[in-house]
Amino acid sequence: MITGKYPNLRLRRNRKQQWIRRLTQENTLTPDDFILPIFLTEGKNKKDEVKSMPDVYRYSIDRLSQITDKALKLGIPMVALFPKTNEKLKNDLGTEALNENNLVCKAIIEIKKKYKNQIGIMCDVALDPYTSHGHDGLIKSNKIINDETIEVLINQSLLQAEMGCDVLAPSDMMDGRIGKIRKALDKENFKDVQLLSYAAKYASGFYGPFRDAVGSNKFLKGDKKTYQMDFRNTDESLREIALDIKEGADMVMVKPGIPYLDIIKGIKDKFKIPVFAYQVSGEYSLLSNAINSKILKEHVIFETLMSFKRAGANAIVSYYADRLDKILK
Ligand code: PBG
Fold first, then answer.
1. Are residues 171 and 240 in contact, defined by beta-carbon separation less than 8 angstroms?
2. β-pairing, 143-144 with 139-140?
3. What is residue 230's predicted lDDT score, i.e. its pLDDT?
4. Nearest CA to ligand 1 atom 6
5. What is the model's pLDDT at position 329?
6. CB proximity list for 243: less than 8 A, separation 6 or greater
7. How does strand 47-49 pair with strand 34-41?
8. Helical spans, DSSP H, in the chain
9. Protein residue closest via CA to atom 8 of ligand 1
10. Which domains are seen in the chain, by residue range?
């Protein structure tokens, strides 16, 4: 008698050759799944390596097309822009965020001029690259002040939208900012500008190399635990997501990536909204260093990226996205 158990049932049969493994695979990765972060720097003819992130560079505006051409050629749908602001331009209020000639504004204009709508542009909404204290918001009596910060974030959002940004990504974790930014965008007739909320963003030790890349590391006083989430918590992420959806988020982000796959899955199971995952700088550096020192083989990159798809992510922000031709092969 054939029974649904061993020795008649053998799950290895569906793994016996590559063709059957290909037919039965449950998840796939293509360039459509990626967002490429790009770091910007002042000056001319610059392509500076970020010390803590092997093979990641900061580009001056005149060399930006080197990396954006690559993104387009690979078929990546969107790039995310992050500026390393000149130290002299940083202050308590992060006013450089509102300068229409700042790095991000210049980059948006360049990219839109060159590629029109062939590639999407996403910009962070947060003040940390611009403040002399390295925090995402304004500080008063040692506190990050929520509502006053939102007023600045609204202006930063409107400026980036005006320059041609397609997707605004508030990564600041202030309460209520999604609703207020949406309202301001609609009022100024930026009805098509999307909001990708970093809704479940944890206070993580994995952001270290990013803070080096944007030059906020040595300025940052204290930590971000009064606004970013406690990594002990799961239910709280569902509350954050529910609120941001209600306030008008078009998409939500979970960050960091690998240590938070349970959060991605929990959100995807509960909400029918595009969920993006961010494989952050510390994860990138860990993997890259292990590969460069031959402790791991390069295909572990593909393995980690696939885990995001398995967990339910619609797309992944990854510093490897500019090398997809090799990684997805
Ligand atoms: C800032 C911001 C951070 C990252 C993206 N936007 C750092 C932080 O919150 O301190 C981290 C990305 C990474 O580590 O790759 N609002």
1. no
2. antiparallel
3. 98
4. 171
5. 86
6. 178, 199
7. unpaired
8. 18-24, 64-74, 103-115, 146-163, 177-187, 208-213, 235-247, 261-270, 281-292, 300-311, 324-327
9. 207
10. 28-327 (3.20.20.70)
Using alpha carbons only, give the angle 251, 253, 256 rounded to the nearest 5 degrees.
170
CA of 85 to the centre of ligand 1 (A): 15
CB distance 308 to ligand 1 below 6 Å: no
Distance CA 12, CA 15 (A): 5
d(CA 4, CA 2): 7
Residue tagged 């078009």 (tokens): 250
Separation of 211 CA from ligand 1 center, angstroms?
A: 7
Tokens of 234: 């799961």
What value does the mean pLDDT of the chain take? 97
- CA-nearest of 128, 130, 124, 137 to 90 is 130
Is 170 within 8 Å of 199 (Cβ atoms)? no
Look up tokens 């797309």; give the residue.
Answer: 315
For residue 84, what are the β-bridge partners? 41
Task: Answer yes or no: is pLDDT of 114 > 70.
Answer: yes
Q: Nearest 5°: CA angle at 259, between 271 and 217?
A: 110
Task: Report the amino acid identity of residue 29.
Answer: L
Chain centroid to CA 40: how far?
Answer: 15
Catalytic residues: 201, 255
Tell me the residue type at 239.
R
Q: What is the CA radius of gyration of the chain?
A: 21
For residue 229, what is the DSSP state?
B
For 100, the token pair is 């229409």
Q: How far apart are CA 240 and CA 105, in angstroms?
A: 29
Per-residue pLDDT of 73-103, as tens digits, reads: 999 999 999 999 999 999 999 999 999 999 9
Give the distance (Å) from ligand 1 centre to CA of residue 115: 27
Q: Coil, strand or helix: which one is 2?
A: coil
